[in-house]
Amino acid sequence: MAGAVRVVGGAVSAALAVTGALHAVWAVTPWPLRTPEEFADAVVGTGRGVPPAGACLAVAGALGAASYLVGAEAGVLPAVGSPGLRRSGVRGGGRGAAGARGGRAGGVRAGG
């Protein structure tokens, strides 16, 4: 079981890191599209504008932190700090994401 957790945790950590890197890129360019309007139409569904660069960078930072927490918890990245603090970050982040969409995290109603 530990080997599976390490493999899946590493894959999830990598996916979060790549997604964060893309958000950092999108803070400065509409890549892979040519214009911000095309990008907004593809991502948001309307060409009326894209989120500000600061919002993209905030998401990139949050995804980077999530990538580290998942990777450290899975044992594929060096662990810094107390295990309890890292675990609360991993579990609390899941609850926060579930709460933002009104769902459940870990079988527990978000926020309760």
List the helices and strands and how they pair.
Elements: H1 2-26, H2 36-43, H3 53-74, H4 83-100, E1 104-105, E2 108-109
Antiparallel strand pairs: 1-2
Helix pairs in contact: 1-3, 3-4
In words, what does this structure look like?
- The protein has about 110 residues and is mostly helical.
- The protein is built from four helices and two strands, in the order ααααββ.
- It is about 65% helix and about 5% strand.
- Mean pLDDT is about 80; it is low at about 105-110.
- The two termini are about 30 Å apart.
- It has a two-stranded antiparallel sheet with strand order 1-2.
- The chain has helices at about 1-25, 35-45, 55-75, 85-100, and strands spanning about 105, 110.
- Strand 1 and strand 2 (about 110) form a beta hairpin.
